[in-house]
Design brief:
With 384 residues, this protein is α/β, with parallel strands linked by helices. It contains 4 helices and 38 strands. The chain has 2 domains: 132 residues, Spore Coat Polysaccharide Biosynthesis Protein SpsA, Chain A, CATH 3.90.550; 243 residues, UDP N-Acetylglucosamine Acyltransferase, domain 1 (3 Solenoid). The protein is 13% helix and 30% strand.
């Protein structure tokens, strides 16, 4: 199969806060899958890389390889990381030069030995389905629009109901894999399938309302979770709705989180609560250093950047943005700059790395020299 290469914007812009500069957009989760995983599923690619000038030297657990744009040679497919395709095992017909969606070229096909010279017009592109991604809040939109079909594509032929549990709706819409499920769990699949990946855990006292995707090695420790995508190695408890966990994050206690995006290595203290609807029921606007950013949505909770932390009892206003590595307490302002500490000070590079070296091994991930260099580069880039 051709090499699949995800192409990132040179400058993602404020609309991608709090992830711009800290994580390639291709690593973000849209529905059940990350962007690069969606492209890989579409073309069945074995090798996947990303060109991401804004996140040079990025490395994290399970991350894809970064390459320089000048190194791109065919045979390859170069695709936009700001587009989430729908479908799997899409055959590349001979003579195809590219793919488009709604008039936008979203992928280009390079022949053997052909060098990449940048995006170009394609005379007769093949039309594909998908979701154009313009901002971080589109990850919430992706969860709303794509998660149900993603879970349906992942479910088993015949649903197996764990002992002592209740399924409301068609049991065939439940896929348990090798998950460990305690008795007295309620699965409500009337609005969509539920998929529990290998080695995940669901404790007694949990109600899951589909569509729900639970990644491998993630635990749901009780509470009500509905219409949410939870990546691998997460701990989740309490009320969660229409929320995306990228992976390796903790929400182990009570507190409502809705219409939010949780970056990797985030820890939400007990009683952390997000507001996801204005009292006026009006459009949510994000407060950013560059000014207000309209989202076109009435439901937006909080966007948590990677390695962000909240103290117990933290209350977050509708449309809050918590920067990478920030540590917040009590009632946070509408915008928290990267690496803020208690909202007034700035966390040092050494302090950030010290915390990361304590956190990552808790999920069995070593802080390799590459990951340490990546974290150092993120701090140097964003802690200004």
């Amino acid at each position: 199969m051709p090499h699949l290469i995800l192409l990132e914007p040179t400058d993602p812009g404020p609309e991608w806060a709090p992830f711009a500069g800290a994580r390639p957009l291709a690593e973000l989760r849209v529905g059940a899958f990350r962007v690069w995983e969606r492209w890989r599923r579409m073309f069945g690619a074995d090798e996947v890389s990303v060109v991401s000038p804004a996140t040079a030297a990025f490395a994290d657990v399970d991350s894809i390889r970064l390459i320089d744009q000048a190194a791109i040679r065919g045979p390859a497919i170069v695709a936009r990381s700001t587009f989430a395709p729908i479908g799997a095992d899409f055959a590349v017909a001979q003579g195809t030069e590219g793919y488009s969606s709604g008039g936008l070229t979203v992928a280009w096909v390079l022949g053997p030995g052909e060098r990449w010279a940048g995006p170009r017009e394609v005379a007769d592109p093949v039309e594909i389905k998908g979701l154009r991604l313009r901002a971080a809040t589109d990850l919430i939109t992706g969860c709303e629009r794509l998660l149900e079909d993603d879970c349906a594509a992942l479910r088993d032929e015949v649903g197996v109901v764990p002992s002592g549990c209740v399924v409301i709706g068609d049991p065939s819409l439940l896929a348990v894999r090798t998950a460990s499920v305690e008795p007295h769990v309620v699965f409500d699949v009337r609005k969509g399938p539920i998929v529990l990946e290998a080695d995940s855990v669901v404790r007694a006292g949990t109600r899951l309302e589909g569509p729900v995707y639970l990644g491998r090695h993630s635990w749901i420790l009780g509470g009500a979770v509905r219409h949410s995508a939870i990546g691998p190695h997460c701990r989740v408890h309490g009320e969660v709705a229409h929320t995306v966990f990228l992976g390796y994050a903790n929400k182990s206690h009570d507190g409502f989180v809705g219409h939010s995006v949780i970056g990797q290595w985030v820890n939400l203290g007990a009683g952390t609560i997000t507001s996801n609807l204005k009292n006026t029921y009006g459009e949510v606007r994000l407060e950013l250093p560059t000014g207000r950013l309209a989202t076109g949505r009435i439901n937006v909770g909080t966007l948590f950047g990677d390695h962000a932390k909240t103290a117990i009892g933290t209350h977050l206003s509708t449309g809050s943005v918590i920067g990478t590595g920030a540590n917040v307490a009590a009632m946070a302002p509408r915008y928290v700059r990267p690496f803020a500490w208690a909202q007034h000070d700035r966390q040092t590079r050494d302090g950030f790395l010290t915390v990361a070296r304590r956190v990552l091994p808790r999920r069995g991930v070593d802080v390799t020299p590459e990951i340490a260099a990546s974290l150092t580069a993120i701090h140097d880039r964003l802690a200004r």
